[in-house]
Design a protein that fits this description.
It is built from 16 helices and 30 strands. It has about 625 residues and is of the alpha+beta class. The strands form eight sheets. Strands 13-12-9-10-11-14-19-18 form an eight-stranded antiparallel β-sheet, with helices on both faces. The chain has a five-stranded parallel β-sheet with strand order 3-2-1-4-5. Strands 23-30-28-25 form a four-stranded antiparallel β-sheet, with no helix packed on it. Strand 10 (about 220-235) and strand 11 form a beta hairpin. About 50% of the residues are buried.
Length: about 625
Amino acid sequence: MFDKVLVANRGEIAVRVMRACEELGVDTVAVYSEADKHGGHVRHADEAYNVGPARAADSYLDHEAVIGAAEKAGADAIHPGYGFLAENAGFAGKVEAHDDITWVGPAADGMEQLGEKTKARKTMREADVPIVPGTTDPAESAEEVKEFGEEHGYPVAIKAEGGGGGRGMKIVEGPEEAEDQFESAKREGEAYFDNDNVYLERYLENPRHIEVQILADEHGNVRHLGERDCSLQRRHQKVIEEGPSPALTDELREEIGEAARRGADAAGYYNAGTFEFLVEEEDRDAEAGELLGPDANFYFLEVNTRIQVEHTVTEELTGIDIVKWQLRVAAGEELTFSQDDVDLSGHAIEFRINAEHPEQEFQPASGGTLDTYDTPDGIGVRVDDALSAGDELVTDYDSMIAKLIVHASDREECLARSKRAFGEYDIEGVVTIAPFHRLMLDDDAFVAGTHTTKYLDEELEQARVEEAVERWGTESTGEEEDGETTTREFTVEVNGKRFDVELEEEGAPAIPTPETSSGGGDRPTGAGGSSGSDDGGSGGGAEPEVPEGGESIAVDMQGTVLSVEVEEGDEVAPGDTVAVLEAMKMENDIDAERGGTVSQVLVEEGESVDMGDVLVVLE
């Protein structure tokens, strides 16, 4: 087993991995950006290293910075968690090539084979795993989309080869939409996954989303740990996950599980992974309780070559610690249980606690401070988080701040226990989607298990969500403006090891201190950091000067700049698009109201922006 593991992630998943390490007697190392220097994962780690400014591309996604931190710390393994670098085959290859550091995950070659969707589809087809009718090579033009639609019918799904979770996927309802949606999918693929290749699939309009958890070692053993039902989604992003699925018979459940195991074996896959499938909801009376049997059509969707957010559901059902097994497999150990040993007990549900406004189409919260944070407990209740009362909400990254996982003897008891748990979950100062979850626990379709992936987007009445927020919601608290925060820098030495330390004091006068050189930052609280502004957005600096009669074009939501359509000196007419912003899984054109000449462009492609940030100034 390893001596020290660096966790190349943040938030609740970083703490989850660290807890598994602790139980295995392994020391832990955190990495953090300037935005996260007071983060819970930093507090939890044995040591921590600053890897850059708030912008993810300059910190959590910086290969050299992360590997450099592992080298400084003397870590002999890197666990990527999920997101960020978890499915980056290039980064995995760099770690694999390192003489002293082990990659905790599948081999880079396997990640490339299954992580790129067209290659994965070819592999599954050869393993006799059913795939959605579509292409197995990248599409080169919008004309191919039209030809595919004529052959297979509309709607058609255009998907980014490196995509997932709904990003880089566009739906074409007819040939007139092919050109715009093709370019949009390629643009998102390039922006989010550094890969603008796209492929085509027949779009299944009303499926259930079923995924199978896989564990495999380097000795040829492959196990599936049952399925999870992730059908409750908004804009293709999961909100609630559960297991076992309330819609499948045992026969279909086993058939899908074996297909996943067959696919993993064919790909030579090892470590943890999730094989995702779509199951067509046809020819059954769901209202009467009829289940989907072995005659139902199911299709391979994709492989997530990493730990999943919802791995906790499977852990509760099986009693198997998936993260510990990731570490053991990476250390060369062999799985000690057979497929017959895998037994699902009871029912489990995971609720994602996102800092979002559910009544505003799940728009991310723009800030807040956790004035109160009391988590539920009791039999069958688990909370994965990295939070403490007094923490400020970090809005630079994903909106999920915690997960509530509930386990019980059956689904009915699990729903009742979930109600009790939410009644005990006290969050004040930060907006979350907890009211939405409480609504779902009394929702007829969800309680009956008849919902599909389209339920939230097309059937749920918005007024009901608004009523739930009115009944159970909380408000965000802004940052207190009690005075200036003064940062003092010190250099200290502990047991012969040099540390740069920052001390922040509110309301204190600035006290000059001698200049010190950077020592690399080895302690959790601000070590090696900078007291300057974040580099992750335009909101941290001074307001731009707008010429008299000019116009500043700002955004009214948090998001990521997919493209900037203008340059300084360009003439812009009223209604012209100056930038394209991705927010809440949708592209949004940012248009000029009055028009003029572009005098300043304050953002660039790939940059994260907050509500109110100015993108372009016109004169």
